[in-house]
């Protein structure tokens, strides 16, 4: 299991922390596997009533590890870890609260579309530059983002790669609240604790009704994943991924 994912319990709350600060919490395959297992484990455990997702100061996540993408672009095996994690996230039965400070790129943004309450700090920037990387949206975001934002604002995010500040994301209904950095974790944990005090069956039914069909969502995640995998082999993606690696070397 990944040493970059820390799973903790606080009463009936399961906290999942992404902790790879030296890579701005870029998520590699082992981290996806650990997160999928933690989510599924917490969901199956009667003692857990709410999941929490947190990053490190300054970075929720810089998205998928681009060296993993490059390995697939070079003909390597892609594995099922990302899909397993996304399926666990999309089919989770218990509420998820997340806290974001700073960088939230790619899946670092789209993950929150599956959360029920997301808190972010004023310095947070949400960004989904899939097209600029020669890729397509993932995590069901091609379905969920237009539903939340309407087609045109979703297109600006997914098609143009425009970013959103925390305040813009709150106004657009993408996140619940903007709080100062030093209040982030307490706000997230207080919301999660409030959730654990609600009648769990009524809350689960309410969430299910609000979330709608999981089959449709998981099917869309699969459809996106098939395109994503093919796009990783494209010249557009290879050029963009190599440009990121060259940028690293140039510094
Ligand atoms: N995959 C792999 N490594 C990543 C990464 C990613 N997605 N994002 C950041 N890193 C690594 C950097 O290569 C660097 O490693 P190094 O110190 O060994 O060179 C380290 O994390 C710090 O990143 P750095 O780029 O120096 O930080 P920054 O504050 O200048 O920029 C970002 C932060 C997020 C803007 C920039 O790192 C970036 O654009 N990352 C790629 C984001 C992305 O496209 N994600 C995929 C979306 S699908």
Q: Could you describe the 3D structure shown?
A:
The chain is α/β, with parallel strands linked by helices and about 250 residues long. It has a single domain (about 5-200), classed as 2-enoyl-CoA Hydratase, Chain A, domain 1, CATH 3.90.226. The protein is built from eleven helices and ten strands. It has helices at about 30-45, 65-75, 80-90, 105-110, 140-150, 150-160, 165-170, 185-195, 200-210, 215-230, 235-250; strands spanning about 5-10, 15-20, 50-55, 60, 95-100, 105, 115-120, 125, 165, 175-180. The strands form two sheets. The protein has a six-stranded mixed β-sheet, sandwiched between helices. Helix 2 crosses helix 11 and helix 3 (about 80-90) runs antiparallel to helix 10. The chain is globular. Coenzyme A (COA) binds near residues 62, 65 and 66.
Tally of contiguous helical segments? 11
Shape: globular
Give the biggest sheet.
6 strands, mixed
Bound molecules: coenzyme A
Beta content comes to 15-25%
CATH topology: 2-enoyl-CoA Hydratase, Chain A, domain 1
CATH class: Alpha Beta
- Percent of residues in helical segments? 40-55%
Q: What value does the Rg take, in angstroms?
A: 17 Å
Mean pLDDT: 96
Distance between termini? Answer: 32 Å
| Total of domains | 1
Question: What's the helix-strand series?
Answer: EEHEEHHEEHEEHHEHEHHHH
The CATH homologous superfamily is termed 2-enoyl-CoA Hydratase, Chain A, domain 1
Low-confidence runs (pLDDT<50, min 5 residues)? none
Number of strand elements:
10
CATH second-level architecture? Alpha-Beta Complex
């Amino acid at each position: 299991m990944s040493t970059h994912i820390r799973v903790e319990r606080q009463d009936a709350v399961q906290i999942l922390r992404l902790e790879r600060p030296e890579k701005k919490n870029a998520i590699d395959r082992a981290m996806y596997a650990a997160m999928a297992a933690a989510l599924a484990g917490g969901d199956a455990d009667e003692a857990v009533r709410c999941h929490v997702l947190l990053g490190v100061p300054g970075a929720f996540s810089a998205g998928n590890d681009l060296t993993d993408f490059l390995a697939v672009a070079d003909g390597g095996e892609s594995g099922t870890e990302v899909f397993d994690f996304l399926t666990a996230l999309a089919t989770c039965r218990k509420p998820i609260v997340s806290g974001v400070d700073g960088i939230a790129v790619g899946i670092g943004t789209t993950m929150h579309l599956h959360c029920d309450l997301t808190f972010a700090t004023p310095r947070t920037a949400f960004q989904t530059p899939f097209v600029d990387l020669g890729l397509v949206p993932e995590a069901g975001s091609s379905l969920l983002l237009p539903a939340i934002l309407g087609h045109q604002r979703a297109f600006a995010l997914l098609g143009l790669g425009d970013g959103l500040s925390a305040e813009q994301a709150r106004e657009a209904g993408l996140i619940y609240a903007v709080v100062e950095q030093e209040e982030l974790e307490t706000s997230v944990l207080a919301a999660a604790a409030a959730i654990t005090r609600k009648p769990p069956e009524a809350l689960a039914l309410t969430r299910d009704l609000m979330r709608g069909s999981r089959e449709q969502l998981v099917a869309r995640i699969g459809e996106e994943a098939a395109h994503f995998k093919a796009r990783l082999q494209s010249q557009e993606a290879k050029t963009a991924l190599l440009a990121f690696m060259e940028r690293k070397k140039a510094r």
